[in-house]
Request: fold
Amino acid sequence: MAEGELLIKNGVVYDPINGVNGEKKDICIRDGKVVESVKNPKVIDAGGRVVMPGGVDIHSHIAGGKVNSGRLFRPEDGRRGLEAKTKVCRMQSGYSVPNTFATGYRYAKMGYTFVMEAAMPPLAARHTHEEIVDIPILDNAALPLIDNNWMTLDYVKSGDIDLLTAYIAWIIKATKGYGVKIVNPGGTEAWAWGKNCDLNDTVPYFDVTPAEIVKSLGEANEKFEMPHSIHVHTNMLGHPGNFGVTMATYDLVKGIKPSKDRQVLHATHTQFHSYGGTNWGDFESKADAIADYVNKNEHVTIDIGSIILGDTTTMTADGPMEYSLYQITGRKWTNHDVELETGSGITPFLYSGKSPVNTIQWAIGQELALLVKDPWKVALTTDHPNAGPFIGYPILISMLMSKKRREESAADMHSAIYDRAALPSIDREYDLYEIAIITRGMTAKALGLHEHGKGHLGVGADGDVAIYDMSPEERDAGKIQKAFLNTKYTIKGGEVVVKDGEVVATPAGKTYFVTPECDDTLTEEMLKKLKDKFEHYYSVTFNNYPVQDAYVPNPYEIKAPMRG
Amino acid sequence: MQTIRLKLKEEVMSGNARIPVEVDSLTPDKLVGKNEAEIKAVKVWWGNKEENTGELFDVRVEGEAGSAEEVKIVMEGDLSRVKHIGDGMKAGEIEAIGDVDMHCGAMMTGGKITVKGNADCWAGREMKGGELIIEGDAGANLCAMYRGEITGMTGGKVTVGGDAGECVGQYMAGGEILIKGNAELLAGLNMHGGKITIEGDAVMPGADMTSGEITVKGKVQDMMPSFKFAEAATIEGEEYKKYIGDLAMTEKKAKGVLYVK
Amino acid sequence: MEITDVVCALCGCVCDDLVVEVEDNEVKKVKKGACSVGKSKLMGHGRIKSPAIRENGSLKECSYDDAIKKAAGILAAARRPLLYGWSSTVCEADKVGIELAEEIGAVIDNTASVCHGPSVLAIQDVGLPSCTLGEVKNRADLVIYWGANPTDAHANHMKRYSYISKGYWTAEGKKDKKLIVVDVRETKTAKVADVFIRIEQGKDFLVFSALRALLLGYEDVVPEEVGGVSKKDLLETVRLMKEAKFGITFFGMGVTQSTGRHNNIVNAIQMTRAAHTHTKFSIMPMRGHYNVNGFNQVCTWETGYPFSVDLSRGYAWYNPGETSSTDLLVRRECDAALFIATDPGAHFPGESIRHLSKIPVIQIDPFANPTTEFADVVIPAAISGVESEGSVYRMDNIPIRLRKVVDTEYLPDEEILEKILEEVRAIREKEGE
Reply:
């Protein structure tokens, strides 16, 4: 946090959490926090430009084992983004898999100040944290994968929700994680034998279904005052016709009452889960069905996972899906199953406007954002780098704000968009207030971070501000895209980190993690079973497993007491 | 026509360490229109520092050029540690008198390079067009791809007077390579287009190829066990056996053609 | 005092269940967990007693400060410095090393370039279908060691992770499993295998291609003998692979350093993918040093590339064969070198040692070794995993933290490098750069 006072004047502020919609307003910051007024500040004149709280990305793969495997096996991606070190910045590399330094700088230049690492395999959590520490500027957190863990599967089978609760508390603490991540539940354990699972299939040897896993974890999560809900990558990702599985998954947790004022399930990269048709030949968009569901229900939020055309690197804990993708493209493929816990697959992919399938996929992500009526249920993501690199966010912003741009782009793509997708028929255009919601307001709320100073500029919030070099009246899509790529200013904790699109300071970010406070008796009983697993099945010892403090040098702890 | 003579000064390579000079900024299209003083001021990397070309080379310019096509660069001196000669070249001519270091002619799209000596590894890497003549031997990875890429050479013509090292034309997608001597291990590895002719011997040619054509006029050591004999063929009056491969890539993908004696 | 869960800092197995007895600030006994080689490392041996600078041919003892100043001066003045080693120290030290390399425009490289670098190159071509060692322990019923001899080089490997180990679906240990060893001679590991396949030197590439063709069903195309292996034996191997529920191939220097090198590994991986069309199959390199992988991980996330990184221009240029240490030294390209946690004197080709004798060389290591004989500045370091803690990555990418079990006066690698970096920056500032 910077000491001293900062005044940002003459900015047109969009702060949706506080209902500020394009007001000319001063922002006062002292010692890194937003305050009511300042006496002797350094002054930044925003000159009528658009001002928003620092961006909050709810889902991005930026640090950890599979991200690094992605970098390691794509030296050709590395050379697409080479930039020499400067007096302020370390060296940079990469496009879809940037090095840690480039990740921090490029996000900060887009006005982002918080990024959630989407999937952390618990056994390798140290790796995620070690990399995060090397990402400059951004505050951060990471979501541990809990849904294919043998402890989870055993407790789901026995129906012991209380003990499952004790386990999720332990694992979130042990990994310094932020919440409960679910990816292809049951399917990734099946993949360790080369198989997969649909929502109601039985996981080989464990005799539970993915549906049971999701429901149980949904219940267990709400036993604590967790800032975030379960964060779910539903089964059958990427398969034509999967939209039914998607909605059936949402239904599973409909009756659960959240422990805080938020969703019960955050559904991630929903674009990949909104597919109709029965094969790649009759593949079509079912974004309208998903949007309709989200419109009618209050317990689900989504992030779109929208496509950016071009080359990228896919990487998820959905091992079987990555294998199918490799079988289609024949490109290089890395797989890494993690004992007792999860797995991952990585393969490069090219999204081409010439392909009917890719064109429809491209439409789906945007359709979801445009057809869901309430922007407080929608987050802007590309599931970086799966649907595209995060550096493409400004392109998406300009698409959502400009029907003209969508039309021009569609005209250059495959004609399938006109009969197997809905995008060309949608007139809606996002305004800046709504953009602010889906890139910082909603995401902070869905993550529970708005209670910890993120995503807004009310008194007490972190002094994280983005000043975009455009006036609120700007309608030209190209200019909007340019403005959102490199800020006029990015301020982090009251310190100017980006000025005129250049990084000028690189303070270290904080790692946010949650400490669920579980009942001792339950914990003790759970530990007996857990230690047995370490004794016989894990390849590391129980005592060497938890992430040591040395890996989190800038901690921000959020306690989650048991629900009263 | 303009000739730019660049002679590497002896002191550059006379120390205990022979630190490479990288001359990617010295191609005809980058130098066209510059006078002698300006050429001397063009920066080149020598290890971790940028130096003026004039510090490392004796520079002499003869004649004038209206376009890059009319520029010929003649490089002399100990070029064995001069890397990236003609890298990215678009037009014009470069003549290198002596053995040259790595990446000669890499990513070139046009023009002509003649090496009157041997070329070290990665000559013609990712070449797109133009002509590269190496009168002596070529090191490993001639016209190959960069690590991780699935496409190497896509166009142009390369002739090697002597032998070539391992992995000639790896991931080749187009263009033509002629090796007058022998090719070491794995010529045409991962080839998916273009044509390679080896007048001497080859070892394990055509591994993992899915398209393109390789002709070996000498002996083949260690023929790939995953190639299928198709038929006898006559090329320029000589008898050859035609093989299709590489079936290890699956039969469906195996559209590569290998002619051996 | 007994200390449990101690992590062995020797080979890529990174066994972490060692029990050690410490008394009077000394490791007295390694009670369990370690193989004999690991045990001897923990018990310690001939250390470098003091920092030293070579004057008139012989090493003269000096302070840490003097040695560090001398080292910094050498590095700041160099036009093509090489920073090499890294595989036997911790990630925290690697990070400082990379920052130092970036500051001085050096080439930074680790022992992978003479060891499993080819495996990395192969992964960059075709990827790596793999898993953690616990997966092998719990599921594998077919274990293949190809060009690797764990009985000698990774003594606990079969006991902890693969053939003799017992896991969830492998509760009977080796009774439930088949072990295949493929090598050019009958090694100690081959002697305990169910199937030993002797392969002709340099023919691995051909045999992998043949197995791929057979796994894909093109039996007619494959000749009666490939690389010294009969078609009958090849077909039997394919049968065992197809019938397995979970197969794993571990491979070592036998394939990475023989004819074909990284292309052998590409082919081994492609064989794994062909096997995967029938059943679950994975492959894993037998990384040698306990943190060779760790350096590759850190270097990748910080520079974009795993090793052989040339930072002359302030960003990373990666091209093994050009930017790899032995190539740089044999070609006499470097004008200064720093060796840390490694011993080029023992392992590098003679030509490169000849060049090293002509340029300033800095050594950072706890132990004296052949490199000490010609180093111009010698800086003794604390022993990682005994005297200092830190992060390491096992051969299967699992991160484990080394423990510190005794105190020491010696500085840890990380601190030595930080001081050198600080001094280099001071020199630069004075020179107005």
User: Anything to note?
Assistant: The first helix of chain B runs from residue 28 to 31. The longest strand of chain B covers residues 228-235. Residues 118-260 of chain B form one domain. The mean pLDDT of chain B is 97.
